[in-house]
Please model this.
Amino acid sequence: MQGTVDGFSYGLVTPLVAYLTACLGGALGLRCTTRCMAVTGAWRAGLLALGAAALGSGIWTMHFIAMTGFTVKGTTLHHDRAMTFASLALAIAMAGVGIFIVGYRGATGAALFTGGTITGLGIASMHYLGMASISLDGELEYNTLTVAASVVIAMAAATAALWAAGQVKGFLWSVGASLVMGLAVTGAHYTGMAALTVHVHGTSAPATGESAGALLAPMLIGPLALLVLAGVVVILDPMMISGPKAVPAGRRPGVPAHPAAHSAPHPTPTRRRLRYRGPMEHRTRTPQQR
Model:
């Protein structure tokens, strides 16, 4: 029989908290991406790695906070621990690939499209892998068109967020980018949940795995601690409000420096040509005597 699915068993509390968590992870991850454009070398790689960890943790935490409000009438839900950890690793890895592409190639053209697509696919992949970790007395089925819509939402919004983060125009642009990234994560999640139907077997067979409360509560501590650590780094950043200054072209890896414009030479003062006068020209002419 078809089970009654409820994704809002706690009302608007879980969607709101989940969205704010996604915005926090997006803000920290995208801020690190913006900040890396002002540095080079190991500092750039370190900031991008921190940003990937923050963004991936925010995506994962948002999903499982929202899942605490998900219930199916007629059966209990349990989660597989190994697959749940794998979904966290997948979110961090794919978000990292997208962030590194934009961080090193810039938020324009093919790099932006590729980075946004990979990040969006990471959001969607993390969601469906997390759903695959659920075990229950029944089967999960998805509507193909709605699933495709959730993937497109994730890719489009992630691309827009990376573009906004790459503008390097200060704090307000970072806030806007984080709100868009939060929309990408929560939009993909709840669109994917709208594609779900559950067929309950009704055999009362015990489901394997652990309950959501027993498993997710301790597992959320690590990602939340990572978000706090990334938040401290961003807050202590002296350029958090003003935005980083762009690295001069000559210092960017792979970008040749532009030759300095030569100033026009000062005009050489014109020298007066002095005509030589012979001795006869210096004599005073006297009137001829008649």
